[in-house]
Amino acid sequence: MKSRRTFIKTAGLVSLWGTISPALAQSGKALVTQTAVLGAEEIGFTQQALAYSYPALEPAIDALTMEIHYTKHAAGYTKNLADACAIENIDISKVKLTELLGRISMYAAKMRNNAGGHYNHEFFWRSLAPVRGGQTNKPSGQLMEAIRTQFGSFENFQTQFSDAARNRFGSGWAWLVKTADGKLKVGSTPNQDNPLMDLTDLKGVPLLGLDVWEHAYYLKYQNKRPDYIAACWSLFNWEVVERRYMIA
Ligand code: MN3
C-alpha cells in the first residue's frame, strides 16, 4: 500500500509529466490512465498467503468454497498472469500491476482477464475478515461521514452496493470506489475487469470489491446470490477499507 508521502511524490511527477515522459505525454489517454491509479492499493504479481484460515469466514463463506476459490480459481489467475506477462515481454520487476491495469487496453485478452483476476482476488481477500459483530459491522470516521453525506445513510449505501452486486448479469464484481474528484461511487464490472482499467465504465480507486462469480458462492448458496451478498456484510474489513479511502 502506498504511503501518503509516496502518493504526494507520485502526484508531483504526474503534474510534471510533460518534462518527464514526453512520449507518454503525447497521449492524453496515457495521462488519464496514469492519474487513475494514483492512491490505489499496490498488489504484487504473486499470490500472498491468506491472513485467516479457510473456515475462518464461516458461516458467511464456507471453508470448501474458500479453499477452492483460493487454491484453484485465484491461483489460476496468478499463474496465467505470469504467462501473459511472458507472452507480452513484460518485466514484472520493472512494472507495477496498477500501472499495467491502467493501460490494459494495450494488451491481449489473456492479460486483461488474468491481471484483473489476480488483482481482484488479492484485493478481495484483504477486504475480508472473520465475522466481527455480524450486522453491526460498519465503517467509522471520515469514510462513514462520506458515506452518510453521499448516500444519505449507511443503509442506503448498503442497498446500492447490494443492488450493484445482485444486478451484475453473469460474472463480475461490485465495487465501492473513490473517483478522481474525491467522491464515493458504487458500481460493478463484468468478468475480471476492475475500476483501475482504462476500458471500464466505472473508474476510480477501489475501496471495496465483492466477487459475484458463481465460484464464489455456489457450493453453499447455489442460485441464491442475494443471500451470499447479504452474508458478506458481516465480513467486510472496514479498517482496511478506511485506510484505502484515506490514501486514495
Ligand atoms: Mn473469484
Task: Provide a compact summary of the structure.
Residues 1-36 have low confidence and may be disordered. 51% of the residues lie in helices and 8% in strands.
Give me the Rg, rounded.
18 Å
Give the proportion of residues in helices: 40-55%
Approximate shape: globular
> What count of domains describes the coordinates?
2
Which small molecules are bound? Answer: manganese (III) ion
CATH topology of the largest domain: Helix Hairpins
What does this structure look like?
The chain folds into two domains: 2-126, Fe,Mn superoxide dismutase (SOD) domain (Helix Hairpins, Orthogonal Bundle); 141-234, minor pseudopilin epsh fold (3-Layer(bab) Sandwich), CATH 3.55.40. It is 51% helix and 8% strand. The chain is built from twelve helices and three strands; from the N terminus they run αααααααααβββααα. The protein has helices at residues 4-15, 17-20, 22-25, 28-36, 63-87, 97-102, 109-127, 141-151, 154-167, 218-221, 225-232, 238-247; strands at residues 172-178, 184-190, 205-211. The protein has a three-stranded antiparallel beta sheet. A hairpin with a 5-residue loop joins β1 (172-178) and β2 (184-190). The longest helix is centred in the N-terminal third of the chain and has 25 residues, at 63-87. The chain is globular and about 45 Å long. The chain starts with a helix and ends with a helix. Mean pLDDT is 87; it is low at 1-36. Residues 69, 73, 121, 211, 213, 215-216 line the site of manganese (III) ion.
